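Budget justification aside, the reviewers requested a transparent look at the raw inputs and outputs of the sequence design task funded under Objective 1. We therefore reproduce one unedited record. The lines immediately below are the C-alpha cells for a 100-residue chain.
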C-alpha cells in the first residue's frame, strides 16, 4: 500500500485573500475527490486548528493499493481539475509518498 500526504499553505489577508473562505473552498474541493477517483482506498483531509509560521493550513492523506494507483490518481481528470481550481489559493505545497 502507498500513503500519499500533502500539506498546503494558503495565501492570507495580507495577500488580498479571505483565508477562512479559501480554506473552506479548498477542503470542499478536496472532499469531492474520493467520490470521483476509484483508486483512492482511504481519504482524510482537513484544516489546521492552529496558525503559525511553521504550520500548514491544510493536510491531505490518501491511501492507494499500489504505486500505479497513485500514478493514475495524479493524472486523473478530477485531480487535474482540482489543481486548476485551487492553484491560485496556495503558495506552498509539500508532498510525501511512502510505502506502508
Amino acid at each position: 500500500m502507498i500513503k500519499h500526504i500533502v500539506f498546503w499553505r494558503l495565501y492570507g489577508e495580507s495577500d488580498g485573500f479571505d483565508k477562512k473562505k479559501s480554506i473552506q473552498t479548498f477542503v470542499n474541493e478536496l472532499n469531492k475527490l474520493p467520490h470521483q477517483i476509484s483508486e483512492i482506498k482511504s481519504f482524510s483531509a482537513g484544516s489546521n486548528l492552529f496558525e503559525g509560521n511553521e504550520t500548514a493550513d491544510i493536510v491531505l492523506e490518501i491511501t492507494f493499493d499500489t504505486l500505479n494507483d497513485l500514478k493514475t490518481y495524479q493524472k486523473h481528470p478530477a485531480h487535474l481539475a482540482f489543481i486548476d481550481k485551487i492553484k491560485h489559493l496556495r503558495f506552498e505545497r509539500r508532498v510525501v509518498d511512502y510505502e506502508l
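The chain has a mean pLDDT of 96. The helical segments are 19-30, 33-36, 67-75, 77-86. Computational costs for records of this kind are itemized in the attached budget.
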